[in-house]
Each structure stands twice: as C-alpha cells, then as structure tokens.
Design goal:
Number of domains of chain A: 2
CATH topology of the largest domain in chain A: Tetracycline Repressor, domain 2
Low-confidence stretches of chain A: none
Largest sheet of chain A: none
Number of helices of chain A: 12
Number of strands of chain A: 0
Shape of chain A: globular
Order of helices and strands of chain A: HHHHHHHHHHHH
CATH architecture of the largest domain in chain A: Orthogonal Bundle
Oligomer: homodimer
Chain lengths: 216, 216
DNA sequence: CAAATTTTTAACTATGTGGTTAATGACTGC
DNA sequence: GCAGTCATTAACCACATAGTTAAAAATTTG
C-alpha cells in the first residue's frame, strides 16, 4: 500500500521525471531515461506511479501550481494599479527565471489536451474578474486610457511569458546564443516591461486618446 | 530517381505530415498515422522522403518559411518607424490568424531539439540589424524614448505571437471557450497592439523620460 | 504493343517501449 | 531475531514503431 507521506524515492522520481518531461515532452520522454536520471530501477516508476500517464499528470500539476496561482494572488490583491502591475511583472519574471521551461511545457501540453484546461481552471481558481473590475475603475476615474481590460491583461502575460517560451530562438538571434547575456537581458526586462506597460496606458492630462472598442 | 518537380503524391504526403506533426509534434507523430491521413501506403513516405526525420525537416522548414521571413521583409523596409510597427503588427497577426498553430509548433520543436533545429533555421537569414539601427536613429532624433531596441522588438513579437501560442488557455479563461469570440478579439487586437506599442515609446515633448540601461 | 521505368503495395524485420512478474533485499514491530 | 510487510531489482513480455524488401501495378518510352 502507498503511504500518504511521500517517500524519498518518490521525490527523487518526481524530480527526474520533471527534468525529462520538461526536456522531451510527454511523447519524447522515456520511462527508462527517467529511471536512469533517478538512478533507480524502471519498475519503481510503476510501483509508485502505476503508469507513464499518471506520472506525467503528477509532474504537470506540480509545475502548473508552481507558476500559476502564486501570481494570481497578486492580481487579486488590493494594491493600486500601477504598483500592482510592477509587482506582478517583477514576481512573474522572477518565478519564470527560476522555472524557465515550465511555461512552454504548460502551453504545449495544454494545447494537446484541451479537456484538462477547464478542470485546471476550476481547481486553481483562475478568475480575472476582480482585476478586470479594477481596470474599469481606473478607466472611469481617468487615470488610464480606455481599453479592453482583457487586451491589457494579455499584453501583460505576453510580455512576461513570451521571452521564456521563445528563449531558444531569441537567444540565437539576439544574443549570439549566450546564456549569460540572455539572463542579463531578462533581469533588465523586469523594469523594462512595467515601464513599457505603464507608459502606454497612463493617461496624459491634456488629451483624451480613446482606444477603439472598449467592450461590448 | 526523384523528379525535381514534386508529384501529386508528394504534396498529399506533405499536407498529411504537416497536419500530424503540428498536432502531435515530432515524437508524438506516427508514420502510420501520416500514411493513413494521406490515404496511402506507409512505404511511400520512405520512398519519397527516406526517413521520418527528413520528412519532418521538410514540413518544419515549410512552416517556418511561411511565418518568419515574410514578416522580416517589413522590418527591413524603409518605412518610418510608427508606420512600420503598424504594418508589422497588422501583417503578422493576419498571417498567424491563417496559420494559428505554426508558432506553437516551431517554438515547441525548437525547445525540444534546439541543436538540430537551429541549424535548419540558420539557412533562412534571420537578421534584425537594420531594424535595430532604425530604432537607434529614432531615439537619437528624439521621436521615441530611449530603450534597448532588442527589448522593443521582443515586446512586438510577444504581443503578436503569444495570443496564438496560448490560445487554448486564454480562450477558456477570457472567452468562455468561444472560438468566435476569440477570433473577434484577435481582429480587434491588431489595432490595439500597434496603439499600445506606439503610445508607450512615443516621446512627449515636455518631459524626457529615460529608460534604464540602453545598450552597452 | 512490349520493354523499361516509376509508383504503389503487403508482408516482414529489428528494435525500442511501457508495463509485468517473481524473486531478493531491507525494514519494522513484537 | 524472526515473521511479515515494504522497497527494489533483473529478467521478461507484448506490442508498437521506423524502416526494408520484393513483388505487383501503373506509367512511360521506343
């Protein structure tokens, strides 16, 4: 019988599985390679996790929980908007720097298995309504320009996540394939992105620029 | 012997291979599935393309060429910066709307097998130097704020590409899983993104805001 | 039309893969 | 210290998969 508390072996397996799955994806990963990486017999993988699919499921959920909800807390806090954007961008890029392969991993597996999305969303309480309401308030109060809050949120996500998803090609094209240069770039990017966003949405006193089509 | 002009069968195979590879990725794809999809015998795949890897390379390069270089032409044109940004964003989002799964495909395969794929890409002449120089000129002339041109380019790419890479989850979270609503959102996004970028980088006459750390 | 060539197929092979099993080693409680 | 349970292993199995082959069908060519 399996114990509730996870054994040391179980942790070692999960660690190895995470590495291999993130590197190779579900289909590319080999149970033997995971076992080798963990330095144990392949049968143990099945002993603890029954099947490749179950093992993957566990790894995926751990990754998802690591990256998504932590950042959601910030969006639902009651900080003022500009501070919140800075806070969000800083934290998100930090978390992703520590787990640079997780966004690509999540996006790919999610595009393969769209069914899982809805259960994940339900499980982690992904709901942008509070943040959307805050953006509306700021628009009405005149501190930011008119826009569709969903567009703004997706701008924020894109600017934070994309550099990690596209790391290989960006690193090759813009940074002579130097990992160190790319890391430096990401550090600078934290400040760069918040400034970029805030400069764009902040309303100038003298003119009222309206964005097209707020929301229906 | 293989003819120079590709036969009808060859086209059918490529079409089927594209579909399966994009859906399942390199490791997930099965030669038998591609053959079934094409309605032909599996041996024909090897007859025309020798191996899975060669077939994949062909498919990948076709996809890459469809999405990347066409848009590079715009960046290397001599339009003024703001017009060029609008032009770029409009064209890119259009192209991606027609090929919504290609970005994810490219990024995924690139992250799985960076070495092999980057040698494939090298032949396609990706070079942002001209556009980078243009951005510098605009900074010097005082029409846009100071910034690292690479950051700006990656902002642009992120804002265009991310909505396609993350479509499943964004659609679920923000658009009740409605494909039509998401399409509408992408249409609006074209205008939204250029405005967002230009509003952020345009320099106001009265103040000179400097971004941190231009380039070394 | 018949010979030569190209295209297509069914059957096959070698290998890699996820998963199983039965035996062994390591603990744990008494 | 020993019975009983849990953890670990090597050897194995069934099956799927990329790739091959040899023969048949279709097409081209003289």
């Amino acid at each position: 019988m399996k114990k509730v508390k996870e054994s040391a072996t179980e942790k070692i397996i999960l660690e190895a599985a995470r590495k291999v799955f993130i590197d190779k994806g579900y289909y590319g990963a080999r149970m033997q390679e995971i076992a080798d990486e963990a330095g144990i017999n392949k049968a143990l993988l099945h002993y603890y996790f029954r099947s490749k699919e179950k093992l993957f499921e566990t790894v995926f959920l751990e990754a998802f929980v690591k990256v998504v909800p932590s950042v959601l807390v910030i969006l639902n806090s009651d900080e003022p908007l500009f501070k919140k954007i800075e806070h969000f961008v800083n934290n998100y890029i930090d978390i992703l720097t520590e787990n640079p392969f997780i966004p690509g991993f999540i996006l790919y597996e999610l595009s393969q298995n769209t069914k899982r999305i809805s259960s994940l969303i339900r499980g982690t309480g992904l709901n942008p309504q509070f943040f959307i309401a805050q953006i509306y308030k700021e628009i009405e109060s005149g501190s930011i320009k008119n826009c569709d809050p969903r567009q703004l949120i997706i701008h924020m996500l894109a600017l934070c996540i994309f550099p990690f998803v596209a790391q290989p090609i960006l690193q090759a094209v813009f940074f002579k394939n130097s990992v160190e240069e790319y890391r430096q770039f990401l550090r600078e990017r934290k400040a760069e992105v918040s400034k970029f966003i805030i400069a764009s949405i902040r309303k100038q006193q003298e003119e009222e620029i309206t964005f097209s089509n707020p929301i229906q």
